Amino acid sequence: MDPAGELSGFIPEHDFFAGIDSDGCVFDSMEVKQKEFFIPSALRYFSLFPVSKYVRETWEFINLYSCHRGLNRFHALVRVFGLLSERREIIESGCPLPDTEDLKKWIASETKLSNSTLRAWHERTGDSSTGLILEWSEHVNAEINTWLKSVPPFDNAREAIERISSFADTAVISQTPLEALVREWDENGIRQFASLIAGQEHGTKTEHLALAAKNKYPSHRILMIGDAAGDLQAAKDNGVLFYPVVPGREVMSWKRLLEDALARFIEGSYSGRYEDKLIAEFRNSLPSEPHWQ
């Protein structure tokens, strides 16, 4: 597979382009994945049961309830353990946290943050800490693949995506593994609405948009739809429009897109005061500081 070539080689069929995040945006799957798969596996693999209360609280803040929501799992892991290392409760417990120094080195040298690229790094360096992190990540994928089935889209999401695909080339822009994205969009009968599906194997969301859409469409005809700050940043990095699916108000957000925002996007009146208002609302829903600080 040539992920970059797949995106850069995409040939437009419409005059508009829409990138759509998946977990937590189209599907109400982010909470269940983090709370039932990522966290329990982390407690086991990294021997964190003595401080499970604080691990859960910190993990949920980073991955669900903050401006860091939606980060690639490896970036998020570094942030979680960094924040935990500063917590008084962790320091007083004496419970050791995983070593993430080699993980940070890998992240700094690689944009396609996936299990396959981590495995190549681990095999080249022989570092035991990244080996354990790789085992954890692969276990999470296997568990989700085995147990998590048929999580439906948010109300109004399917109708909005079908409407978008009628006038725009539509791409899934996500940091979820490609296999899971294809399976989830297939299971729910909406894969036919996506011209492209880009996962963590294809690079960052900024790279997805740059390769698939930038310089192929006018910037005011490219819209990124997402529920996390990383989605907004990808849009800003590429100078394109952003529509927020506000965490906790997802059904309303999809309805507003379907009934109002898409018409503005098509007619060219979306950017400016309207988009700014939506982004301000979105930013206010995602705090940057945890409540315990």
Structural account:
The chain has 293 residues and is α/β, with parallel strands linked by helices. Strands 3-2-1-4-5 form a 5-stranded parallel β-sheet, with helices on both faces. The chain has helices at residues 3-8, 30-45, 52-63, 73-85, 88-93, 101-109, 115-125, 128-147, 157-165, 178-187, 205-212, 229-238, 250-267, 273-284, and strands at 16-20, 168-173, 196-198, 222-226, 241-244. α7 packs antiparallel against α8 and α9 (157-165) packs parallel to α13 (250-267). It contains 14 helices and 5 strands.
In which range does the helix fraction lie?
40-55%
Q: Per DSSP, what share of the residues sits in E-state strands of 2 or more residues?
A: 5-15%
Report how far the terminal alpha carbons are from each other.
45 Å
Radius of gyration over all CA atoms, rounded? 19 Å
Along the chain, the helix and strand elements come as HEHHHHHHHHEHEHEHEHH
- Number of DSSP E strands: 5
How does the helix and strand content classify structurally?
A: alpha/beta
Q: What is the count of helical runs?
A: 14
> Low-confidence parts, pLDDT < 50 over ≥5 residues?
none
Order of strands across the widest beta sheet? 3-2-1-4-5
Q: What's the story with the biggest beta sheet?
A: 5 strands, parallel
Average pLDDT, to the nearest integer? 94
**Rough shape?**
globular
